[in-house]
Specification:
274 residues; TIM Barrel; 12 helices; 8 strands; binds 3-methyl-2-oxobutanoic acid; binds sodium ion; magnesium ion binding; 3-methyl-2-oxobutanoate hydroxymethyltransferase
């Protein structure tokens, strides 16, 4: 957290990546990510659910623990899932405490703007760092009319600004800003004293976040990928190639070769065969 604050003060962009299990956290940590987020997007990318509404606190805690075990350098944040924090600030604090004690992450994230300010204040006052999430908030896609860019009108942009100021005032250490026009996200970032972590919000934010399986290309062809994602690799194609080669070699008895087998001395073998 102190490191993030000093990066922000120096104007050094903060690099954030999601992870959902031990290997995905290990590789993100090794690559030097500043923050590793156990996003509730794991509902889709790791559990095969339709959207994030189905994922439970227990699901999240299991994945948070595995990520925490692999993470040595990055600051870890767990996403509070839908239904675990909206009822009252007390409910939210209870869930946040479980994320720290059982999930073993260092901070939590929750979605929402001005209406969540009392909740963010409650959690931060208990000493738990909160990353807010404004702009497009996927858990509320039902009421937002699907995955829509936010702040595309002057009125909409004003709403994002008001939300950002409210969550800042409530004590969040930073905020994810999702699917907001670049100029709007940049202007809002200039008005704040805590970092914005952009996703689909242009290059004027204080940092960036992407969903790991999206940016490494670890998904089958044909999956919908939002416009803001840059695919830096093709892990799915690499895995497919490797597994197909294995299959070929099993079927043709090329694998295992002698170097993959354990030796036995000629004498022991002779005795065994008798
Ligand atoms: O769930 C998630 O992965 C997220 C990030 C995309 C910010 O909320
Ligand atoms: Na999320």
């Amino acid at each position: 957290m102190a490191t993030l604050q000093s990066m922000y003060k120096k104007g050094e962009p903060i690099a954030v990546m999601t992870a959902h299990d031990f290997p995905s956290a290990h590789v993100a940590d090794a690559a030097g990510m500043d923050v590793i987020l156990v996003g509730d997007s794991l509902a889709m990318v790791a559990l095969g659910m339709e959207d994030t509404s189905e994922v439970t606190v227990e699901d999240m805690l299991l994945h948070c623990r595995s990520v925490a075990r692999a993470t040595k350098a990055a600051f870890t944040v767990g996403d509070l899932p839908m239904g675990s924090y909206e009822i009252s600030p007390e409910q939210a604090l209870e869930t946040a405490i479980r994320f720290i004690k059982q999930g073993r992450v260092q901070g939590i994230k929750l979605e929402g703007g001005a209406e969540m300010a009392p909740t963010i204040a409650k959690i931060t006052k208990a000493g738990i760092p909160v990353l807010a999430h404004v702009g497009l908030t996927p858990q509320r896609q039902g009421s937002l009319g699907g995955f829509r860019v936010q702040g595309k009108t002057s009125k909409g942009a004003m709403k994002v600004l008001e939300d950002a100021l409210a969550v800042q005032e409530a004590g969040c250490f930073g905020m994810v800003m999702e699917a907001v026009p670049a100029e709007v996200a940049s202007a809002i970032t200039q008005k704040l004293r805590v970092p914005t972590i952009g996703i689909g919000a242009g290059n004027g934010c204080s940092g960036q976040v992407l969903v790991q399986v999206d940016m490494t290309g670890n998904f089958p062809p044909g999956r919908f990928i939002p416009k803001f994602v840059k695919q830096y690799g093709n892990v799915w194609a690499e895995s497919l190639k490797a597994i197909e080669s294995y299959r070929e070699e099993v079927k043709s008895r090329q694998y295992p070769a002698p170097e993959h087998t354990y030796p036995i001395s000629a004498g022991e073998l002779e005795a065994f065969r008798r």
